[in-house]
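ingest -> fold -> write
write: protein_1
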Amino acid sequence: MHMLSILKKTAMAVTGVSWFLFLVAHLLGNLSLFQGAEGLTAYAANLHKLGPLILVAEISLLVLMALHVYSAFEVVVANRRARPIGYGMQRTKDRATPASRTMQIGGPIILLFLVVHVRAFRFGEENVPGGIGAVVMNAFANPGIVAFYLVALVALGLHLSHGLGSALQTFGLSQPKLRANLNLAGLIVGWAITAGFMSLPLWGYLSSRG
């Protein structure tokens, strides 16, 4: 049973880090939006040149997300069953951070965001003059959409800032001297990535007002 628990935590860490690496690459590509709608459309056109590899990557990301959600659910259930009561529970709560407390709430928010995001931008560029760049800029001209994105990205920031440190500890970097530094690194990197993503809808909205 202990080995199964370790495997589930490892699966959650590996799939989480894999998605994090994708997010870094995704952000770097999407920064082409700062060149205007044409910049993002050109970037998307270059991606489409990869042909079938794009579909392979998308299916791989879907499988990784499914495994991540499943393993996270299993770990949460196992932790609840093993959770101490009374004084022990109070001490656990005292050690919890805002990021760790919101992981279970943030996960569904991020999943909803992904569904909306993929539906709007992955399949929303057909027969639209200007391509995906125009679709994105038009969407970010809507303050309601921008607000939704920012709320979802806050959930992402909380998820990343806690998850990165936890993943590294799962990989064996759990010595007391390293733990604080790992948590700090996760906090900085997680929110840096989130800030990068937040800059895109904010810039799109402000550009539409200019």
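write: protein_2
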Amino acid sequence: MPKGTFQNLPEGKKKIIEEKAIHEFAAFGYDKASINRIVEQCKIAKGSFYQYFDDKKDLFLYLIKRVSEKKLKYMSPVIENPEQYDFFTLMRELFVSGLKFAADNPELTLIGNWLFKSKSHPIYKEVVDMGLQKAQDVYSGILKYAISENEVRGDIDLDFISYIISSMNVIIMEYYFQSIKQEEADMQKIDEDIIKIVDLLLDFIKNGIGT
């Protein structure tokens, strides 16, 4: 995570560094992204960069954290008003909201595309683990509300079920990019293929696979 020297920068300068770094990772992926190009675009000395971050990985993980925060804020109107939906409709609305976020933030989506197509990369697990914990916290809160509304059984293990749902969300994206969209997916529109997969997941959570 960034050093205190970065946190103490004026907000405008931090924003420029974040934007240029996102553009670099979106255009080149993690491995081919260049610190030299980033500092050149930001008009800062390379030595200054290492006063802000340990290395490229440190910068990348920081950006992923910032993206997660931005996405959560984007989805907050759905998360903070669960009474508008039953549990399973809420799950669907959350996923659609996430797709709308992707459509509104194409560069961030390109970074996500690279990640889901790079499962064997050492940084993949670190990024997924970061996201899973945050997702578990969100789903745990939603499940508690659903239990209070008698929409979900009260005897479930909250930690386990929230972990399963969070993990399934990751698996959906992996399946989508590896099995359905062999080519680049156009995330600037909501793809019906991925909505169908979401509906299959929700049906599975609701009904299982028993006859």
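write: annotation protein_2
Residues 72 and 122 are 25 Å apart (CA to CA).
The mean pLDDT is 86.
pipeline exit 0
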